[in-house]
Write a structure and sequence with these properties.
Strand order of the largest sheet: 1-10-7-6-5-4-3-2
Strand content: 5-15%
Structural class: alpha/beta
CATH class: Alpha Beta
Mean pLDDT: 97
Number of helices: 10
Shape: globular
Number of domains: 1
Amino acid sequence: MRLGVHISIAGSIDLSVDRALEKNCNTFQIFTRNPRGWSHKNLSVDEIKRFKEKVVESNISPIFSHMPYLPNLASPKEDVYSNSKRVLKIELSRCRSLEIPYLVTHLGSHLGRGKIFGFNRVISAINEALREVDSNTVLLLENTAGSKNSMGTNFDDIAHLLNEIKENDRVGVCFDTCHAYAAGYDLKTNSAIERTLQIFDKEIGLERIKVIHLNDSKRGLSSKMDRHEHIGMGMIGKSGFNAILSNSMIRRLPLILETPIDSRRDDLGNLKVVRSLAGSSG
């Protein structure tokens, strides 16, 4: 089982590999820069070299990068849209330099302009970025919880986006359990998971999923609210994650936790719970 968490790059990006090893991860996810601003610091040649050497030495794979928070690939605001496209191109380039095989992106919000407008914006942005940045990095579209005006909540919407992206072999899907559950796709039992995966396979194809974001949900089924919870402490619950981790298709994929860190539990605690549930599910 490939299991990891989102890791800090504080100090230097190569330190993320050390931190992943300390947590006994064999896969992990990072931001390649400060995720809360538009600007970024260029990676030095030495940083890139150290990161790549440590990844090889650690035998950790695959590595995932995540787009920063501010970009909105569906935005009707021209300045935000322009900056979002610029950041997407930069992140694809940084992943190329770091030899990171996957970049996860949220699909953004159309801010009331409608789904068709949002589709056109996202498709245009991704096609432009892939055309202008020659990279082996695969861009992963992440499903969303379904908050107002958000893109990519329904599997058929993600399928439409994938079908309209010209360099189709350079895109895939990041499947977030919290987001799927909040969007109305049940994951609490073996039979519910099978139904959800059958819907996904029919609409998109299970082979397009390259990573699972393994998160419990603070809110209930179809809540449309993106609120991550510790594994087993949320509405999906321990029995739900036992069922999720017993699914052979899911177990074959890298699992990345994006769970909270608070007085109740930290990353190590959540990793321990996942390993325990995975062990008990066979």
